[in-house]
């Protein structure tokens, strides 16, 4: 497994748990040092346990020597980063291609190379070409096996997936058969639980990943738009979403209105998809519009808070619960809190914030003036306004009466709809949420 980041580490540990010997190659000395010393550099429930269990048995190892790691391998997974390239929205593939060249250089016998990173359509084909150019003496097979892991439930997503997508380079039938056989073997435990495994070609597998993420980003954006409409016409988004979602063709998941999607995947993958479409000579207007609406939404959320404060937040004390892009992660990438809190600080607000896992990651990304607190109630202490930005479960149990005594003001803006409006209004709050009367 080349790359011990989020995808590489979770996939590597889970393959080891499935019974395969896995060597994870990580170049970053800090990350590697952490892994070698039994520290998991990311927050992911359950990961710690499988990593330590499988390192103890020796099935999972870490190192920085790629040649040694692939010496006796049947398959090599590329799980390096593919950040958005500056300027054109494309995924930056330099790490993927560099890893490919290194693998080619070090390879001793025929090998299956699998891209696990989310890569644009055509990358698998390009990987195959590089391998051929660099080592015409070796028979490589190439596959694309995109991940569909959600942060916070990645282990479960890997162990009990809705589906596994495997694209195989079928240029040579012999190599394709070999690749199929190895991939089947790797995912064998999933056949037992009858998880659907879809075998297809490289380009289809690559596009499927983008299509799925873009669709989900669109679904969230759609429900956000309906929530805005609910506010205008006096309807309740909770029931609208429920009513829509009971239609099995729509499905209830991902219909939770909020401050706009963030994270390491949706923003990056939607941008990459529009770039792929443009390169192919067309536009993906639905996805382009989704991106635009979602970006705008984050600044609208700051406006909403300013309006609720009576038109200005200057010198106002604002308590903030939740900073990460979603709960059960310490990930701050493209979190709605970033533009919202930056704007509120620019407007002269004093922010007291608490997040159960994200504060270390948040500090360097947010204005320095933010005062980080050790728990939710302390973040609410003496504030004029309280804003909920991430729906951590721990916040659900907060007692409205106790909160009322803690705050000096009475305004709550719940951008994740975690609380019952009636209970908070009964406790004397001016409570507003998203799309609920
Ligand atoms: C996502 C995909 O779900 C996963 O399949 C893919 O492989 C990686 O990207 P992740 O980024 O971990 O996973 O988060 P996800 O749970 O999908 O949420 C993404 C964003 O959408 C979050 O900001 C979340 O708050 C938001 N969201 C999600 C909503 O606002 N409402 C919803 O109903 C669902």
TrEMBL record:
It catalyses: UDP-alpha-D-glucose + 2 NAD(+) + H2O = UDP-alpha-D-glucuronate + 2 NADH + 3 H(+). Substrate binds at residues 148-151, 209, 254-258, 262, 326. The active site is at residue 265. GO terms for biological process: polysaccharide biosynthetic process; UDP-glucuronate biosynthetic process. Keywords: NAD, Oxidoreductase. The keyword Ligase does not apply. One of its GO terms (molecular function) is UDP-glucose 6-dehydrogenase activity. Residues 319-421 form the UDP-glucose/GDP-mannose dehydrogenase C-terminal domain. The keyword NAD applies. NAD(+) binds at residues 31, 82, 118, 151, 268, 333. Gene3D superfamilies: Cytochrome c1, transmembrane anchor, C-terminal, NAD(P)-binding Rossmann-like Domain. Its EC number is 1.1.1.22. Pfam families: UDPG_MGDP_dh, UDPG_MGDP_dh_C, UDPG_MGDP_dh_N. Pathway: Nucleotide-sugar biosynthesis; UDP-alpha-D-glucuronate biosynthesis; UDP-alpha-D-glucuronate from UDP-alpha-D-glucose: step 1/1. Belongs to the UDP-glucose/GDP-mannose dehydrogenase family. This is UDP-glucose 6-dehydrogenase.
């Amino acid at each position: 497994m080349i790359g011990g980041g989020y995808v590489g580490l979770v996939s590597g540990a889970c393959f080891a748990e499935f019974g395969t010997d896995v060597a994870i190659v990580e170049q970053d000395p800090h990350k590697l040092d952490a892994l070698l010393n039994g520290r998991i550099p990311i927050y992911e429930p359950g990961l710690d346990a499988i990593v330590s269990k499988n390192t103890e048995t020796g099935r999972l190892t870490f190192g920085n020597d790629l040649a040694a790691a692939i010496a006796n391998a049947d398959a090599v997974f590329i799980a390096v980063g593919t950040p958005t390239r500056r300027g054109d929205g494309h995924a930056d593939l330099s790490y993927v291609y560099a890893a490919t060249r290194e693998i080619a250089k070090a390879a001793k016998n025929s090998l299956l190379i699998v891209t696990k990173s989310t890569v644009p359509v055509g990358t698998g084909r390009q990987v195959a070409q590089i391998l051929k150019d660099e080592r015409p003496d070796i028979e490589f097979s190439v596959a694309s096996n995109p991940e569909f892991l959600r942060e916070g439930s990645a282990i479960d997503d890997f162990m009990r997936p809705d589906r596994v997508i495997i694209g195989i380079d079928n240029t040579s039938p012999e190599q394709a058969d070999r690749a199929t056989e190895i991939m089947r073997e790797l995912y064998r435990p999933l056949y037992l639980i009858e998880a659907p495994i879809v075998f297809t070609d490289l380009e289809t597998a690559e596009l499927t990943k983008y299509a799925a993420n873009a669709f989900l980003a669109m679904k969230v954006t759609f429900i956000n738009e309906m929530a805005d409409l609910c506010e205008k016409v006096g309807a309740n988004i909770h029931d609208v979403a429920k009513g829509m979602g009971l239609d099995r063709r729509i499905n209830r998941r991902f219909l939770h209105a909020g401050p706009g999607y963030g994270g390491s995947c949706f923003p990056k993958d939607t941008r990459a998809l529009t770039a792929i479409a443009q390169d192919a000579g067309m536009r993906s207007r639905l996805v382009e519009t989704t991106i635009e609406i979602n970006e705008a939404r984050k600044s609208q959320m700051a406006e909403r808070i300013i309006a609720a404060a009576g038109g200005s937040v200057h010198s106002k004390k604002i308590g903030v619960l939740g900073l990460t892009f979603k709960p059960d992660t310490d990930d701050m990438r493209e979190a709605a809190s970033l533009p919202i809190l930056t704007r509120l600080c620019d407007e002269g607000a004093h922010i007291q914030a608490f997040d159960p896992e994200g504060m270390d990651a948040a500090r360097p990304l947010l204005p320095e003036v933010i005062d980080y607190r050790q728990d939710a109630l302390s973040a609410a202490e003496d504030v004029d306004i309280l804003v909920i930005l991430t729906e951590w479960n721990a916040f659900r149990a907060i007692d409205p009466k106790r909160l009322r005594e803690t705050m000096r003001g009475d305004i709550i803006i719940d951008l994740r709809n975690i609380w019952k409006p009636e209970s908070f209004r009964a406790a004397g709050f001016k409570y507003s949420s998203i799309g609920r009367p």
